[in-house]
Amino acid sequence: MKALVLAGGSGTRLRPITHTSAKQLVPVANKPVLFYGLEAIAAAGVRELGLVVGDTHAEIEAAVGDGSAFGLRVTYLRQEAPLGLAHAVLIARDYLADDDFVMYLGDNFIVGGIDGIVERFGRDRPAAQIMLTRVGDPRQFGVAELDAEGRVVGLEEKPVTPKSDLALVGVYLFTPAIHQAVAELKPSWRGELEITDAIQWLIEEGLRVESDVITGYWKDTGNVTDMLEVNRLVLESLEARTDGRVDGASELIGRVVVEPGAVVERSRVVGPAIIGSGARILDSYVGPFTSIATDCLVSGSEIEYSIVLPRASISGVSRIEASLIGHDVEVTPAPATPRAHRLVLGDHSKVQISS
C-alpha cells in the first residue's frame, strides 16, 4: 500500500499567516500539523508516500526532505492549482500505479492514528473505505448516507439539505478502481473534481464502499479557531520536562515543557504549555494552552491560549489571548497619544460618546 498526502492547498482561511508560509506547516505544540499525519501513516506500516504540493512546494520539501526522518520514502508530485481532491488522484496516477493507497489531507488532525482502518481495509478490500464523524453543521462538509448495515449508499458535497450528520474525515482508502471513477468525472459547480463524486460513481457501479464512524477527535485545521483547539488538545498530553534554564525567581506550574536552550527568568508559566528551544521568557506570564516556538522573545508581557511562531517578539504587552502570531512578528505597545474624537455633524444631529 502507498500513501497520497495532499499539501497543495493555499490556506485562505489562515491568512495572513499563509501568505508567506504553507498552512500544513503551521505548528501545533511546536510541530507542523503535517508531521502528525506523516507519523500516523508511518505508524500504520505504510512506507511509500506521494506528497502533492503546490505553490509552497519549496517550503514543504525543505521541511519534509526525503521522508527518512519519518520512516518514509517521499516522492513529490506537483499540482499546478488546487482543483479538487480527485484532481490530486488524477495527477498521481502514474505514481500510484495499480497499488492500493490511503489518501490523507495534510492539514487534518486525527487522534488515535489510522492503524485500525488501514488494517481493516487490507483485510476486507472494499473499493473504497472512508472515515466519518458526526458534526453539528454537515452543510460545511462532504456528507455520507448509510444504509441499515452501515454501508455507504450516497455521498454529497456540502449539501443544502444534508441527509445525515456524518461528515467525511480527511482520510480515504482506495483500490485502483478509483482511477476509473476519477477519469469519468466532470468539474463540479466549484470548478473542482470532487472525490465525493468519484466515490458516488463507485457506489452507482455496484462496487462496495465501507465506512468507519470515528468517535475520537478530528479537526480540519483550516482556520485559527481550529488551530488553537488542536493545539490545546495536543498540549493536554504533555509530560512536564525542563531541559532549558529556569531561574529561581520563576515558577512553572503544571505540565510545562522548556526545551533545550530556552530561558525563563522572573516569569510564571502555567501549563500545559511549551517553550521552544532558544526562546526567552522574561518578566512575563505564559498561561495554559500556549505554544512558544523556537527563538521567540516574550518580555514584560502576558499571553495565554495562543500559538507563537518562530522568532516572534512580544514586549511590554499587557494581555494577549486566543491568538496566532506569525514568524518574525514584533508586538509592542501603541504609543501613548492623547485620545480625541473628530466629528463632522450635520444639522439636528444627536450623538452619544462614551467617555
How would you summarize this macromolecular structure in one to three sentences?
This protein is of the alpha/beta class and 355 residues long. It has helices at 17-20, 33-43, 57-64, 85-91, 93-96, 115-124, 177-183, 195-204, 224-236, and strands at residues 2-7, 27-28, 31-32, 48-53, 73-78, 101-105, 108-110, 128-134, 142-146, 152-157, 166-174, 209-213, 218-220, 241-242, 245-246, 251-253, 256-258, 263-265, 268-270, 273-275, 280-282, 285-286, 290-292, 297-299, 302-304, 307-308, 313-315, 320-321, 324-325, 330-331.
Question: What does this protein structure show overall?
Answer:
The protein has 9 helices and 30 strands. It is of the alpha/beta class. It folds into 2 domains: 2-223, Spore Coat Polysaccharide Biosynthesis Protein SpsA, Chain A; 238-331, Hexapeptide repeat proteins (UDP N-Acetylglucosamine Acyltransferase, domain 1, 3 Solenoid). The strands form 7 sheets. Strands 5-4-1-6-11-8-12 form a 7-stranded mixed sheet, with helices on both faces. Helix 7 (177-183) crosses helix 8. The longest helix is centred in the middle third of the chain and has 13 residues, at 224-236. The N and C termini lie far apart (67 Å). Mean pLDDT is 88; it is low at 11-19.
